[in-house]
Amino acid sequence: MKNKEKVTIYDISKRLNISAATVSRALNNNPKISEKTRKLVAKTAAEMNYKQNRLAQALKKGRTNNVGVIVPYINRSFFSSVIRGIEEELTPHGYHIIICQSHEEVANEAEQINALLNTQIDGIFMSVSKTTQTTEHIKKIQEEGTPLVFFDRKIDVPGVSSVVLDDYKAGYMATDHLIKEGCRRIAHLSGDINLEIYKNRFEGFKAALKDNEIEFNPAYVIQTSSKIESGIQAVEELWELEQKPDAIFSAGDYAALGAIQELKSRKINIPKDVCVVGFSNEPFTKYMELPITSMDQTPQMMGKIAAQVFLEQVKEDKTISVEKRVVLPPELFIRNSSNRKLINLENAV
Amino acid sequence: MKNKEKVTIYDISKRLNISAATVSRALNNNPKISEKTRKLVAKTAAEMNYKQNRLAQALKKGRTNNVGVIVPYINRSFFSSVIRGIEEELTPHGYHIIICQSHEEVANEAEQINALLNTQIDGIFMSVSKTTQTTEHIKKIQEEGTPLVFFDRKIDVPGVSSVVLDDYKAGYMATDHLIKEGCRRIAHLSGDINLEIYKNRFEGFKAALKDNEIEFNPAYVIQTSSKIESGIQAVEELWELEQKPDAIFSAGDYAALGAIQELKSRKINIPKDVCVVGFSNEPFTKYMELPITSMDQTPQMMGKIAAQVFLEQVKEDKTISVEKRVVLPPELFIRNSSNRKLINLENAV
DNA sequence: TTTAATTAAGTAATCGATTACAAAAAAAAT
DNA sequence: ATTTTTTTTGTAATCGATTACTTAATTAAA
After folding, report:
1. In chain A, which ranges are continuous DSSP H helix?
2. Backbone phi and psi for residue A289, each to the nearest 5 degrees, phi listed first
3. How many CB pairs under 8 A join A and B?
């Protein structure tokens, strides 16, 4: 694998007997260069197979046209879709995306931030990990003057823009939907309350109960992790109760799936006896034999908007700090796991 | 957002009244620097909040410690898992990963390659798109002397290393499993035969039939795309036949899922009447009410090994071109969609 | 005590592109 | 024909770190 000598603007300038400055300007379509020279340089550059060294350019310009994205995990449908949204929006602007995973560890998160800052990225997008309680590592980003945009999972840091779902409303909508299906004893499989998103979903859940004059029962709230097993356990726990729930609103799809599996193995009919609603609209929810009702977070849209917020930020004067907070509306995809009307319809046939 | 002045080695050298060269050497733990100076520099650098400018370093050293990964789609479980494997292996070596998507378009692929080469990445990992028939854009990578490793989907380019699944064996195993379950009229939902992987799965399928003295019936082969609808259509087509199949080996999980949905809606019992095997071991296959038998491609392992191949390559003398071809063994996860013994067992209870 | 060997630090070029400033060439104005 | 203006190009510094080559300082050997 021979390392072909790299062609530089100096090689072009020697060949044409002009200065490297002229070559540089010609290649950048600087209007101060005559059309004749510009075309000649362009032609020669192509002939010599010249490739601009973006490192040198970045060093000089102070911009790399790279941005970093930090997510807990890359192989979650939600996050990869957000990333795709960011990419779609930023690629046309010449940006490249460096993806990092925190694996839900704040230590990794801090390390990734450091590495990204060292690589001189032009901006950072991030969804904080579950273990992120302090903000020092995040403030470092601000100190460097690097634009930062939180998406989905944010943490309160003054001056940082964010694009999130209206999780409160989502929790409200999901619960309200269950109530409209006739459920009254609604259990909630919550996520880690340390994360704003889960807290807000929980708050929305409570608000919907209150607005419908249903008493809130703390025994119906089980904290789960986003795992199937966690959902199974939750049902085991809930079905110990005197008054069993007639609905489950899970803050995550995996826990919802586990709950459904456990309910089925107990021969409980869904949605007749118990309605189930999940959260995230993971692809599998709609492929199930019993498709699961789930809350969509419009991840790709979230990514696109986060990218737009970033673009605005770099356009603006760096000395002015503007904090922009975008809140996206959730969308409920009602499927069989909570759709009693549909079942009645089928029975009617 | 004030852009704090960047601290350079010159600032440190001025502060300590030593040369920048000494600072650089001290920071790099060069043995020619006295312990005293080394410690002093380290302390001062920390105090001044010095951050190495990796651009300048990369420009000088000719290495960026960034690698590019090009995949058709990032939000496919298989690809994101491979990426995760690459990451796990490469992060300890100080590499960062730039992820690009081709969206199955060779034009995008070429563009991404160009962009990556311009950014001076130290290596490229890629899984070619379905539309990649020519290799010119790939040869560019070689011309630059940039290490390249194909994973999963490769295309024949002399001198390029690859890490792939033994798709032939996988096809053979899947088919053999179906035969062992008593199936004789096995249909194959193949993928795009232009891709080696699908061709090999198909060949393995045929070989297993032959070895078991089952005649190959071309009517039982339907080309599908990796979509649910495609699987539904395939079953519709197959069930037009006089002799309906008693098994389906799909080269993709999504088509398998579609097939199962269609079979169920036709009240065909799985696995009693028809056994179904998918491919890729997508997460949803095991979460289904009727879990789907599927071939696992050990994606994370694939990523790790691809990374190791890359690391070997950069270690070696660049003037020697070594082509390494790794073939990984597939693993069949037998689940209810093709497990008749399990069903008999259940009935026996 | 002088010389040789070793260690530590400095000088300056380099990586490749950009750009402020200067200079030359061409065109326009007097 | 000369001066002014405009256009085009060149010179050289710069971004920040690395490193070949020297030089200075220290230690060991004669």
Report:
1. 9-16, 20-27, 35-47, 54-61, 77-90, 106-118, 136-143, 167-180, 196-211, 228-238, 253-265, 283-287, 299-315, 340-348
2. -60, -45
3. 127
Residue B35 neighbours by CB under 8 Å, 6+ apart? none
- At residue A184's C-alpha, the angle toward residues A183 and A190, to 5°, is 90
Residues B278 and B197 placed together within one structural domain of the fold: yes
In terms of domains, do A42 and A90 share one? no
B127 domain residue, yes or no: yes
User: Where in the sequence is the domain holding A198, given as residue range(s)?
Assistant: 167-296+333-348
| Total count of domains within chain A | 3
In the structure, how far is the CA atom of residue B52 from the C1' atom of nucleotide C8, in angstroms?
A: 23
- Is nucleic acid strand C under 7 Å from B22's C-beta? yes
Q: Which of A55, A96, A284 is closest, CB to CB, to B284?
A: A284
**Least CB–CB distance from A75: residue in B55, B81, B287:** B81
On whether residue A57 sits in a domain, the answer given is: no
Tokens, residue B46:
């920390």
Task: Name the residue in chain B with its Cα closest to that of A261.
Answer: B289
CB B27 within 7 Å, strand D: yes
Give the Cα separation of B90 and B3 in Å (integer): 31
Residue B156: Cβ within 10 Å count: 9
Q: Nearest Cα to B298, choosing from B287, B286, B306?
A: B306
What is the rounded (10 degree) CA torsion for B252, B257, B262, B266? 120
Query: Which residue type occupies A153?
Result: R
CB atoms within 10 A of CB B162: 23
Per-residue pLDDT of chain B (349 residues; tens, 9 = 90+): 344 568 899 999 988 888 888 999 999 888 888 888 888 888 888 988 888 888 999 999 888 888 999 999 887 889 989 999 999 999 888 888 888 888 888 988 998 888 888 888 899 999 999 888 888 899 888 888 889 999 999 998 888 999 999 999 999 999 999 999 889 999 999 998 888 999 999 999 999 999 999 889 999 999 999 888 899 999 999 999 899 999 999 999 999 999 998 998 899 988 889 999 999 998 888 888 789 999 999 999 999 999 999 998 888 756 566 789 999 999 999 998 998 776 655 544 4
Residue B8 contacts A, CB cutoff 8 Å: no
Contact at CB, A289 and B288, closer than 8 angstroms: yes
Could you write out the DSSP letters of every residue in B136-186? HHHHHHHHTT--EEEESS----TT-EEEEE-HHHHHHHHHHHHHHTT--SE
A36 CA to C27 C1', in Å? 17
**DSSP assignments along A33-76, one per residue:** S-HHHHHHHHHHHHHTT----HHHHHHHHS--SEEEEEES-SSS
- Which nucleotide comes closest to A25 if you measure CA to C1'? C18
Q: Residue B281 CA to nucleotide C30 C1', Å?
A: 86
Chain B residues close to A77, C-beta within 8 Å: 75
Bridge partners of A98?
A68, B98
Report chain B residues whose CB lies below 8 A from the CB of A87.
101
Q: Are residues B257 and B276 in the same domain?
A: yes
Counting Cα atoms < 13 Å in the Cβ hemisphere of B229 gives 0
A58 falls within a domain: no
Q: How far is CA B318 from the centre of its chain?
A: 25
